[in-house]
Amino acid sequence: TEFPSTQETMLKTIACIVSLASLVLCTASRVTQVSYIGCYLDNEARDLRGLTGVSKIGQFSIGSLMLSSASMTHELCGSFCSLGGFPYFGVQSDEQCFCGTSYGSLGAANTSDCNRACTGNGAQICGGTWCNSVFALTYPDKKYFEQSQMPNQTVVSTQSTYWTSADKTKAECLMMCEASADCQAVIFSGQQRLCHLLRFAYPPASLSSTDGDYFLRG
């Protein structure tokens, strides 16, 4: 796989104000296309389970595997789920957003069952009662990375959201992230030669003060 040299690595500082609007703006570039798939059934066990164990991403609290917002739109949910590189998202009951790596475990619903307007955009449909409007996310070429300041947002989860490899160069660290579908960002500590690979675009709180270079993928 062709990998860019250090000189070719894109350098860009990302400064995000903590708000719903800024989340969309800062992550929108990570998605090249949003495609509607269909209306699918859900239940209390949840069909889209990508946020298992996660209780907070940035300023957003997660409950029952979902983000709820009175400003919910397709763009907001898609941008939110792109923080974890998820290929699918579902919106339900006006204001609920789910992320996942698969969908449809409970079967398809009737198209007419997804009939609730999104709270943030009345022209969009956000599922129905126990029904998700499911969409696919297409991402740009993820071989490239943008270096920026360490985000002041973090991820809180009962499950680990990063893994570490020792004795790596910066180029090797970025190549490891590029080779893994689960890696969305990198923190490289040059002095310790430690490579931290992040499942989300935001680091866990335990790494937020790490002395190293931060790279966002894609």
UniProtKB/TrEMBL annotation:
Keywords linked to the UniProt accession: Glycoprotein, Membrane, Signal, Transmembrane, Transmembrane helix
WSC domain span: 33-138
CC terms in the record's Gene Ontology section: plasma membrane
Topology relative to the membrane: Single-pass membrane protein
Location within or outside the cell: Membrane
Domain of life: Eukaryota
Pfam families the record matches: PAN_1, WSC
InterPro entries for this protein: Kremen_rcpt, Pan_app, WSC_carb-bd
Secretion signal span: none
PROSITE patterns assigned: WSC
Listed name of the protein: WSC domain-containing protein
Species for this entry: Macrostomum lignano
